[in-house]
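Predict structure. Chain length: 254.
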Amino acid sequence: MRERIQKLLAARGIGSRRQVEAWIKEERVTVNGKPARPGQPIDDRDDVRLDGRRLRLGRGADAPHRGIAYHRPAQEGVRSSSDASPSALEKLPKAGGHRWVPVSPLPPRDAGLELFVTDGALAAGLTKRGYAITIEYSVRVRGAFDEAAIKERLQEQSESAGLKGRVDEVAATGGEASNRWVQVTVTGLRPRDLREIFAGCGLEANRILRTRFGPISMDRVLARGRSRALTEGELRSLRELAEARPAGSRSTGR
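Prediction complete.
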């Protein structure tokens, strides 16, 4: 069965649909010797190449999809590093006929839990649902604050800044002098949003570590630069999260 090129390449874990669209726009993808077109129907029999290298669309097509939880150090690139050190993708185990696709990767300056899956459609679904996914961050904050009032202050600042996400929970977890650690649970907020919110409260978020993404938590024993395979149960939970309907939506089925 022929499918649109973005959908098929994403399903094979070659890249997200957005990445494939960018590659096509940059004329890096060819189909049977000609530049690919957005939405072009293809199947495993076509000669599809990226930067001149043929993509093995049939290889691993029926293999079960896999997932990885990785503890990425700050300043390490997900796809490529600014120096000679290996990127996160280069440190992962082989994907067995697929390719690893990052799920909502963190900015290089931040660190913590990174998720990679071989199912491009799953990665795209999770990215699309990002506004509704609960995420936990461990944040090092410079400045004094009232533990009893910090959650309300952060949420008020989030609303005044016009951000669409929300602050769900905040708990102080330790620290010394002017640097203190807080565990922040949010929905639909990114690290840069957190920095903006803390700054609006007169505080500096000088380090942000992601410790949970939806149902997946970063184990304490998972050292920096190390990875572990996601269980079938964790992958199933991610699929359910990616396919969840927005609140208030109704099925059109009869």
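Summary: The two ends are 27 Å apart (CA to CA).
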